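Morning F.,

Quick status update on the modeling queue. The single chain you submitted on Monday has been processed. Sequence for confirmation:
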Amino acid sequence: MSIGTVYERAYKGDFNQVKVKIDENKSIVLTPDTNSRFLIHWAALSGNENLVDYLIDEHSPVDPVDDTGSTPLILAASAGRFEVVRLLIGKGANVDHKTNRKQTALHYACSKGHKEIVQLLLSCDASVNEADVLGATPLHRAAAQGRTDIVDILLKSSSIQVDLCDSTGCSPLHLACEEDREATAVLLVKSGADINLQNKEKQTPIDICSSKLKSILK
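Structure tokens below.
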């Protein structure tokens, strides 16, 4: 089995084949591929928590970063691998690690709509107001996607800041209105989002929403 193949096996969650390769050569656990990903990155994406646990027992680092700055936790959160996320956090993974674009596991979980992972990350004190390189918080990501259930979870956080603005001066409400995410916009307004807040184009959320949504929010 070639080195390239063992990463593929890890991605498929093939515990036995990965173990055979490691038994032959322990150093493979600490050998990154051409994308600077370790076996644990691929195992995290596979969702096989037993394989991830085994790799950690074989002295894999918990938070190695690939060429995008992503840790196994971030990849697992993005892929919706709840059990792996829980395991990695239990092993000490940094819930607030940022990628090269300053996105956290919470950003990805919110954007992809992984409700249980969002709840888990918040219960483990993940920072709810972290901003990425474009100034977008997890709430911006969820609001733009119209993920009302995720927005609802975020809004229940005691430290949530509803009106933080991204690099264009837009709040989560701006994005929800722009994308015509009716239920999300209504929820944000009910939770205190400012309908008169202006972005860098001097537009309020009301200025950029549909006529129907405008009539609901006003």
